[in-house]
Design goal:
Elements: H1 8-19, H2 30-34, H3 45-53, H4 72-76, H5 83-97, H6 105-117, E1 138-139, E2 146-149, H7 152-156, H8 158-173, E3 178-180, H9 190-194, H10 198-215, E4 219-222, H11 225-234, E5 243-246, H12 247-256, E6 269-272, H13 286-293, E7 299-301, H14 330-340, E8 345-348, H15 351-363, E9 371-374, H16 375-384
Parallel strand pairs: 1-3, 2-3, 2-4, 4-5, 6-7, 6-8, 8-9
The structure holds iron/sulfur cluster (2 copies).
One iron/sulfur cluster (SF4) is lined by residues 25-31, 46, 49, 76-77, 79, 81, 83.
Length: 387
């Protein structure tokens, strides 16, 4: 058998970047069996880990950027290898040397925009609250029940702004005393961290934490599973703890407490897509289904892959900013799964999922077949029917 001498310096760099756990891998290949990439093209996390262990990583290649951090393979690994940590470590090394393949270049634009404006979409910071200009949403003050942390896509993206409006309308109708941070809100930093830009993440996190503390924030309502994950699981690294509630969890609470009554009817077949960062990463599977089940007339049907086996949309790990060829998009597969259920609506709760699904809907020419909706959009319509 050929013996390969490890490139010790490269191995050390990967370890220092946080990828040391590669030493546990015994190359069984189970991660490759479950990885969604292998539904659209060949990709081997096992091989990536093997190469890292020997210091043979192609740091300028595409493969280190593929992992969407969907969380599927870590649940399967018999050795407890944290594959996402290894992928992020490899990206940190590539970022350190500023080597990026062509498909990753647009993530550099997102990074620059995060540094200058606090969002990845090249929106001006002063326009962050423009989505709310026709609403009576107030700036957050300490005496309020909760902060609504809107997030970047819901603040700037035209499709996602509708979700911000729906969410704010629901909270207002339920009588929740809430406010927003406006131009003092910065990106949570989750996705840029997964692309290896640790320093940018830390700057964004510190900005937000400073604002939360200065403004007396205790409870934070979020729309994005990525904000949820970061505030709940990553901001405690800075020795702070805030009560973080995803809007789906909060909707169940509001309905149970009688603060929100859904009186409208939505007589459609609906299927629900579990976003990776709400489901697999944070175990929130029941609340979104519970909200949908309270809507009169709505028939909930499941797709082939659901709950912990949900199929990633392809947008996590910073992939939302990278170029993916049409034939390699997981979101196309997901839409086909949704279509197979006969559902007229694909409901979900994540800005990346909605962005990818809307694009696949056009690519597949499904415009007349299926609609993509955030759960808040369905709920908001049920309230409007009561006017
Ligand atoms: S499942 Fe775990 S042990 Fe098996 S190849 Fe993947 S990382 Fe290695
Ligand atoms: S986390 Fe998901 S995308 Fe990344 S290697 Fe594992 S299964 Fe593939």
């Amino acid at each position: 058998m050929e013996t390969i001498a490890p490139f010790i310096e490269v191995v050390e760099e990967i370890k220092e970047a946080g990828g040391e756990i590669f030493r546990l891998c015994f190359q069984c290949g189970l991660c490759d069996v479950v990885c969604p990439w292998n539904r659209v093209r060949r990709f081997s996390m096992r091989k990536l880990i093997r190469e890292a262990a020997f210091g043979l990583t192609e740091i300028d290649g595409e493969d280190i950027w593929r992992c969407t951090t969907c969380g599927t393979c870590p649940t399967q690994c018999p050795r407890g290898v944290k594959q996402i940590d290894i992928a992020v470590a490899l990206r940190r090394v590539a970022t350190e040397y500023e080597v990026f393949p062509a498909s990753v270049k647009s993530a550099r634009t997102a990074r620059a925009s995060l540094i200058s404006e606090g969002n990845p979409l090249q929106g001006e910071r002063k326009n962050r609250a423009q989505w709310a200009k026709d609403l009576s949403v107030k700036p957050f003050t300490e005496d309020m029940e909760a902060l609504y942390f809107v997030g970047c896509y819901l603040s700037y993206d035209p499709r996602m702004r509708k979700v911000a409006v729906a969410t704010a309308s629901i909270l207002e109708k339920a009588g929740v005393a809430f406010g927003i941070l406006g131009d003092r809100e910065s990106c949570c930093g989750e996705s840029i961290r997964k692309t290896g830009s640790e320093a940018v993440f830390k700057t964004l996190a510190r900005e937000n934490i400073k604002t939360f503390v200065e403004m007396g924030v205790k409870k934070i309502i979020v729309s994005s599973p990525h904000c949820y994950h970061t505030f709940k699981n990553e901001y405690p690294e800075f020795m702070v703890h805030f009560e973080v509630v995803h809007i789906n969890q909060y909707l169940v609470e509001l309905i149970d407490e009688g603060r929100l009554t859904l009186t409208g009817e939505f007589s459609e077949k609906v299927t629900y897509h579990d976003p990776c960062y709400l489901g697999r990463h944070n175990g929130i599977y029941d609340e979104p289904r519970s909200v949908l089940s309270r809507v009169a007339g709505l028939e909930l049907v499941e797709m082939e892959n659901y709950k912990k086996n949900s199929l990633c949309c392809g947008g996590g790990g910073g992939r939302i900013w990278m170029d993916t060829p049409k034939e390699e998009r997981f979101s196309d597969l997901r839409l086909k799964q949704a279509r197979a259920t006969g559902a007229a609506v694909l409901a979900t709760s994540c800005p990346y999922c909605i962005t990818n699904f809307e694009e696949s809907r056009l690519n597949l020419e499904y415009e007349d077949i299926i609609e993509i909706k955030d759960i808040t959009e369905i709920v908001c319509d049920m309230l409007e029917a009561t006017k």
